[in-house]
Write a structure and sequence with these properties.
6% of the residues lie in helices and 43% in strands. It is mostly beta strands and 420 residues long. It has 4 domains: 123 residues, Immunoglobulins (Immunoglobulin-like, Sandwich); 82 residues, Immunoglobulins (Immunoglobulin-like); 76 residues, Immunoglobulin-like (Sandwich), CATH 2.60.40.10; 88 residues, Sandwich (Immunoglobulin-like). Strands 3, 6, 9, 10 and 11 form a 5-stranded mixed sheet that branches. The protein has a 5-stranded mixed sheet with strand order 13-19-18-15-16, with no helix packed on it. Strands 30, 31, 33, 34 and 35 form a 5-stranded antiparallel sheet that branches. Strand 26 and strand 27 form a beta hairpin.
C-alpha cells in the first residue's frame, strides 16, 4: 500500500488519504482510507472510514475495536469503554455513513489492528481487514560511536515512518537545544569535532512532543601534555621520601606511563616513589603518557638540597714554608645550595682566624705554625674539614745564624791573641 503522512501544527494530526479498501459485500461494508498507518509516538492519528448497510435498517450502536470479525461478540471490546483508550479516543463520525475516529497521544502499546463495528436493529457488522496502526519512536544513528578529534561525524534522526520533506528536525546535546543546528533535513554533521563535542545527542521533529532516546558520541584523542606534581611540594632535603605523579588527559585513558632520567628509564606507572633521596637523584626527569592514539612527554627538574660534605682544606705549594713567605689555605666542598660561609680555625683556638674559601697568610712567621681546618656552611647545614699542618721553618734559620756569629767571633778572638 502507498501511504502519505502530513504534519501540521498542534493538535498534531495524521491524515490518511489512501485509496479505499472495500469489503466484499456490496450491501454491507466498511471502507478504510488505508490499511496501514505509521505514526510517531505522542502524535494524533485520524483514521478516515465510511460504512454502508441496506436501506430499512436502523443503526443502534457504533464503536471501534481491536479484535477482528471472526471473534465472538463478547470478544469485540468497545475501545470507547476501555480505560486505556477512553480519554484519548474520539468518534468523529455519525450513525449514518461516516465512521472516522481520532486517537490522541498514541503510544507503543497502541500498535494494533483496528476495526470499526456497527450494530443495526438486526445484524452486527465488523469492517473486514481493519487498519494496522504502527507506533514508532525516533532514533539517532551515528556514522561512528567513536570519532577521533578533528575528524567529522554524521548523526541521523530516523524513524520507521516516512516523514514529509518539509519536516524540521531539532537536535539536542545533553538535553540542551542546539538551536543553531536546527535543519530541514534529518542529519546533523559535525565537522572537525572537538573533545567537548562528546555527549548525549537526541532529536525531535518540530511540532511533535517527541524526543528520541539519546545516542552517546564519544570523541577520542591522544594524551595532552602530562602534568608532573611533586610531594612534598616544598624544598626536598637529602633523605626525604619523594613521590612524583604524572597525569595526562586523554580518551581513551592513558594506558602506559613511563619515567626517564637523562633518557634512561627509571620507572613505570603513574607514580614514581624515591625513598631516602640522595644528592645524585637531582636532575631532569621526564614522564611519557601513551594511549592508542599517541604519546606525549613532559619534563621537570628535581633539586635535592643537602649540607656541605667532602669538606677538605689544602695548602698552596708543596715545599717548605719559610718565614716571610705567603701561604694560601683553600677550602673545598660539595653542597646544594652552594656554601655561603667559609670559616677558618686554628686548633686549640676558640675564635676563627679568617673567612672566605681562601685564607691567605702573608709574611708568615713562626707564630703561624700549627694545625688549621675550615668549616663550610649553607642554609641546610655545615661540616668541618680535617686539619692540615702549617710548619714555618724560621726558628732553625735564626739558630744557624746565631751559631755562625759565635764561630766568627771566636776565630777573630783567636787571631788577635796570636798577633799579640
Amino acid at each position: 500500500m502507498v501511504m502519505s503522512i502530513m504534519l501540521a501544527p498542534p493538535p498534531l494530526i495524521f491524515l490518511l488519504m489512501i485509496h479505499r479498501v472495500y469489503s466484499a459485500d456490496d450491501e454491507w461494508g466498511v471502507n478504510y482510507s488505508s490499511s496501514y498507518i505509521c505514526a510517531l509516538k505522542g502524535s494524533t492519528v485520524i483514521i478516515n472510514c465510511t460504512y454502508k448497510y441496506p436501506t430499512g435498517y436502523k443503526i443502534m450502536n457504533v464503536f471501534w475495536t481491536n479484535t477482528n470479525e471472526t471473534a465472538k461478540d463478547k470478544e469485540h471490546p468497545d475501545l470507547f469503554n476501555d480505560s486505556e483508550y477512553s480519554q484519548r479516543i474520539e468518534y468523529l463520525g455519525d450513525k449514518h455513513h461516516d465512521c472516522t475516529m481520532r486517537l490522541t497521544d498514541v503510544r507503543q502499546t497502541d500498535s494494533h489492528k483496528y476495526y470499526f463495528r456497527f450494530i443495526t436493529d438486526q445484524p452486527k457488522w465488523v469492517g473486514k481487514h481493519g487498519v494496522t496502526l504502527d507506533i514508532t519512536d525516533l532514533q539517532v544513528e551515528s556514522s561512528g560511536e567513536r570519532v577521533t578529534e578533528r575528524h567529522s561525524v554524521t548523526l541521523t534522526c530516523k524513524s520507521r515512518c516516512s516523514l514529509p520533506d518539509r519536516s524540521t528536525f531539532i537536535w539536542f546535546k545533553n538535553t540542551q537545544s542546539l538551536s543553531e543546528r536546527t535543519d530541514r533535513n534529518n542529519q546533523l554533521i559535525l565537522q572537525s569535532v572537538r573533545r567537548n563535542d562528546s555527549g548525549n545527542y537526541s532529536c525531535a521533529v518540530q511540532g511533535h512532543n517527541l524526543t528520541s532516546p539519546h545516542q552517546y558520541l564519544n570523541v577520542i584523542y591522544a594524551p595532552d601534555k602530562p602534568v608532573i606534581s611533586i610531594k612534598p611540594s616544598g624544598e626536598i632535603m637529602e633523605g626525604d621520601s619523594v613521590t612524583l605523579t604524572c597525569s595526562s588527559k586523554s580518551n581513551p585513558p592513558v594506558q602506559i606511563y613511563s619515567w626517564f632520567k637523562e633518557n634512561k628509564t627509571v620507572a613505570s606507572g603513574q607514580t614514581y616513589i624515591i625513598s631516602k633521596i640522595r644528592s645524585d637523584h637531582s636532575g631532569e626527569y621526564k614522564c611519557k603518557s601513551i594511549n592508542e592514539l599517541g604519546k606525549r612527554y613532559s619534563a621537570m627538574n628535581l633539586n635535592v638540597l643537602y649540607p656541605p660534605k667532602k669538606v677538605t682544606a689544602s695548602i698552596s705549594g708543596s715545599g717548605e714554608i719559610k718565614e716571610g713567605d705567603s701561604v694560601n689555605l683553600t677550602c673545598s666542598s660539595e653542597s646544594n645550595p652552594p656554601v655561603q660561609i667559609y670559616s677558618w680555625f686554628k686548633v686549640n683556638e676558640t675564635s676563627s682566624v679568617g673567612s672566605g674559601q681562601t685564607y691567605s697568610i702573608t709574611n708568615i712567621n713562626s707564630s703561624h705554625s700549627g694545625w688549621f681546618y675550615c668549616e663550610a656552611q649553607n642554609e641546610v647545614g655545615s661540616q668541618r674539614s680535617t686539619a692540615v699542618s702549617v710548619n714555618v721553618k724560621g726558628n732553625m734559620m735564626i739558630f744557624h745564624s746565631f751559631i755562625g756569629v759565635l764561630i766568627l767571633g771566636a776565630v777573630v778572638f783567636i787571631m788577635m791573641l796570636i798577633i799579640w
